[in-house]
């Protein structure tokens, strides 16, 4: 069961990443952010259950950043873009 959850979480994140790389999704789009939040939440739960602390930390940060951007988008604000 854990392996299936790991695969589903990874598919969500990797789908968002691939679609962004192929310019199908914008990294600020809600669907991109939702895929990242869901995938990171699933992978967080699996990592926590297996005491994989490095992955717990990675997935917590991934989920929090994605969730923050999603909330900003739902409020009608654009997530910040880095200054280049």
Explain what the structure shows:
With 84 residues, the protein is an all-alpha fold. The protein has one domain. 74% of the residues lie in helices and 0% in strands. The chain has helices at 2-21, 30-49, 53-74. The model has no long low-confidence stretch (mean pLDDT 90).
Record the SSE blueprint:
Layout: H1 2-21, H2 30-49, H3 53-74
Helix pairs in contact: 1-2, 2-3
Tags for this entry?
0% strand; 84 residues; mainly alpha; globular
Q: In summary, what is this structure?
A:
With 84 residues, the chain is mostly helical. It has helices spanning 2-21, 30-49, 53-74. The longest helix is centred in the C-terminal third of the chain and has 22 residues, at 53-74.
Query: Termini, distance in Å?
Result: 43 Å
Q: Considering DSSP H and I runs of 4 or more, what fraction of the residues is helical?
A: over 70%
Please state the structural category.
mainly alpha
Beta strands, count: 0
Shape verdict:
globular
Low-pLDDT residue intervals, each spanning 5 or more residues? none
């Amino acid at each position: 069961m854990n392996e299936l959850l790991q695969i589903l979480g990874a598919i969500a994140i990797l789908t968002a990443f691939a679609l962004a790389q192929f310019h199908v999704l914008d990294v600020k789009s809600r669907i991109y952010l939702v895929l990242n939040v869901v995938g990171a939440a699933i992978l967080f739960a699996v990592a926590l259950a297996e005491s994989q602390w490095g992955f717990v930390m990675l997935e917590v940060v991934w989920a929090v950043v994605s969730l923050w951007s999603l909330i900003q988008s739902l409020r009608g604000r654009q997530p910040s873009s880095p200054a280049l």
